[in-house]
Amino acid sequence: MNTNHPDSGQIKVTLTGFLSLFSIVGISLYGLPFFYDFWVQDFGWSRATVTSGNAIAKTLVGLFAFFAGWMIDRFGPRRVMLTGILAAGLALVGLSSVTVLWQFYLFYFITAIGYICGGPLPNQVLISRWFKSARGKAMGIAYLGIGFGGMLVPQIARKFNVLFGWQQAIFWLGILMIVIALPMALLVKDNPPRDETGFAKEEKRPLKDILKGWPFYLLLIGSMCSIAAVSGTMQNLKLFFSFDLKFTQQTAANVISLILASSIAGRLIMGWLADRFPKKYIMLLIYAIVASAIPLLYIAGQPGIIYLFAIIFGIGLGGDYMIIPLMAAELFGVKVLGRVMGLILTFDGLAEAYAPMLVAWMRDSSQSYANGFATLIILGAIGFVAISFLPRKLGSHFQNNGKG
């Protein structure tokens, strides 16, 4: 398998990752917040309530992420991914018809299961199995799906809203998710036919030994804090734009699309850098970009500032989720990557879910996003510090210290 010239299997894997992440993350994670203000206006729910669906759902399925990781390591990522795509699409179909809170939480719960089974986790393992020297580039291209999905979905959602109303818009987004992601996932294979990535020969480190070492917890804390900063910002932007900055629906959609367009450049740049420089330093660069962009929201009312924020934050967003599995594979290997990332994504998912709700609650309580944004800046800084203590690689750590 020539990593400089990808074969057909590698192309299928990368395209599968692109399309499933376009759907599961681009449409679901970044598409649904576009409708938060409609739930507030039509149902009288608070900001904290409409941002709590993701939080409560990911809390309930938290431990399931580790089980999903175990299933991926044991049975392969493909079957798990197919289940997740169907669950995520049908969950949006259900969300289009909710009228009471318990229905809202039920379908958000199914959305979270779809995210875990069909989103980043199986794609991270699949790409890591098929690529080695060009793993960062392949991961970056696959993760472009999030950027394109997030960039296009606000515009698609706005158009669907005009044509059909906001509830039918959610329905058709759910159908679109399945149509886009499912066909390619049916064709992909779990493992390459020839093991030139070294997957079969790799020594499998016992998970219990990995959990005894401090690098796992530094990666966990660092990723949780940065994901919280990213999610807490992104999930509140539409509310911030609509109610605090008084943006029109078109302007809000344009800014969110610019963020996701900038994330495309971020993913390509950071993926390219991760194949050429120590991944730890690329991770630090990404986390620094995220933490430094959020303060611009304090002066977002000044001409042009919101677009500067969108570009800088988007570049950081592009690398944030992508760099975590690359760093984990570098530290702990590929054979146990499903379980390691299952654990990390469990806690990252909680951070991703609760940070928006916390920021929204602060806004409801104080009538200002100032304290919420300050909290997100602090979280981003903590993430940077935690990653700064990571080793560049863990192979020597295990060799020199036995069971790390």
Give an overview of the whole structure.
Helix content is 80%, strand content 0%. The protein contains 17 helices and no strands. Helix 5 runs antiparallel to helix 9 (166-187) and helix 7 (120-130) crosses helix 14. It is mostly helical and 404 residues long. The protein is globular and about 55 Å long. Mean pLDDT is 87; it is low at 396-404. It has a single domain (8-192, 203-398), classed as MFS general substrate transporter like domains (Growth Hormone, Chain: A, Up-down Bundle). It starts with 7 loop residues before the first helix and ends with a helix.
In short:
This protein is an all-alpha fold.
Q: Judging by the overall fold, what is the CATH architecture? A: Up-down Bundle
Bin the strand percentage: under 5%
- Encode the helix/strand succession as letters: HHHHHHHHHHHHHHHHH
- The percent of residues in helical segments reads over 70%
Number of helices: 17
CATH topology-level name = Growth Hormone, Chain: A
- Given as residue ranges, the uncertain stretches (5+ residues, pLDDT < 50) are 396-404
Determine and state the CATH class.
Mainly Alpha
Give the class from helix and strand content and strand pairing: mainly alpha
Radius of gyration: 20 Å
Number of domains: 1
Could you tell me the number of beta strands? 0
- Based on CA inertia axes, which overall geometry fits? globular
CA-CA gap between termini:
32 Å
Largest beta-sheet details: none
Q: What is the mean predicted local confidence, pLDDT?
A: 87
What do we call the CATH homologous superfamily?
MFS general substrate transporter like domains
